[in-house]
Design goal:
It is built from 6 helices and 7 strands, in the order αααααβββββββα. It is of the alpha+beta class.
Length: about 260
């Protein structure tokens, strides 16, 4: 089920791209659109006209996910690259913390950030979402997914044409870990967006059935590492519930070098 809900590494207020294992929209950081630090003017107009915040604003700008394993530069063979990654991680944590403080102080009374609830919330939504997708439960998906992800799930469910899908979570391999937690103010008083990225490692299987027969190549257990992005909106000073925006990928050295080039 890996990449089932893979969404773009597109940044805040930017637009989407192409697919993976189960065909959802997928952005790659290396080809991400031109970065923007401010929302498009149309966002502010849309928020005022419709009196609400869109649920799909993209991944917040400068979200950093430290690579793991072989993706992480070696401290022995490429120390300079490793230093760049470590420095970027420290910088991201400081900026992220500042964004959360700003988010906390938008409304009165002040918000409680409840950081310890992020990982269990992401895990619960992860299980609920995949189960609902397999069962074709669009009502549940509508309540727990951002618009772009929901529409992708809905279209794929509609395209099954009698095919049955069974998703099984065999076990969680490691404890979930929050790798990013940040927020942004939106261009309307009392409005904001908070996003957290949680790394979830699990063993899953996805079985497809057609006319009572298991489709060849499905049903095998797989160890999956996913970076699940959950988000909540702040509107008129009140927090809404958590939604799944999608998944993202680890940041890359190429991505950091591209950022340096843009700064210069």
């Amino acid at each position: 089920m890996t990449l089932l809900l893979r969404r773009p590494l597109c940044r805040a207020f930017q637009t989407p791209s192409t697919p993976c294992l189960l065909q959802t929209r997928h952005y790659r950081a290396a080809s991400a659109p031109e970065r923007r630090t401010q929302p498009q003017p149309s966002l502010k107009v849309a928020m005022k006209e419709h009196a609400q915040i869109p649920t799909d604003l993209g991944l917040l700008t400068d979200t950093f996910i430290m690579p793991t394993g072989a993706n992480k530069p070696s401290i022995f063979f490429t120390p300079r690259d490793r230093f760049k990654m470590e420095w970027r991680r420290i910088k991201a944590r400081v900026v992220d913390f500042g964004s959360l403080l700003a988010f906390k102080w938008i409304p009165k009374p002040r918000l409680k950030l409840r950081g310890r609830q992020l990982a269990p919330t992401a895990v619960a939504l992860h299980r609920q979402m995949y189960t609902a997708f397999a069962e074709g439960d669009t009502d549940t998906l509508r309540t727990i997914c951002a618009d772009g992800l929901y529409e992708s799930f809905r279209a794929r469910i509609a395209a099954r044409r009698g095919e049955k899908v069974q998703w099984t979570l065999h076990k969680y391999i490691r404890s979930p870990r929050v790798v990013s937690d940040r927020a942004a103010r939106l261009p309307i008083d009392g409005a904001g967006l908070r996003q957290a990225v949680v790394r979830i490692r699990s063993r899953q299987s996805l079985t497809r059935m057609r006319e009572g027969q298991v489709v060849a190549g499905t049903g095998q257990e797989r160890d999956v590492k996913e970076y699940v992005v959950i988000q909540k909106r702040l509107w008129k000073g009140k927090e809404e519930g958590w939604l799944v925006w999608g998944t993202t990928e680890e940041s890359t050295l190429e991505q950091l070098k591209a950022e340096e080039g843009q700064v210069r």
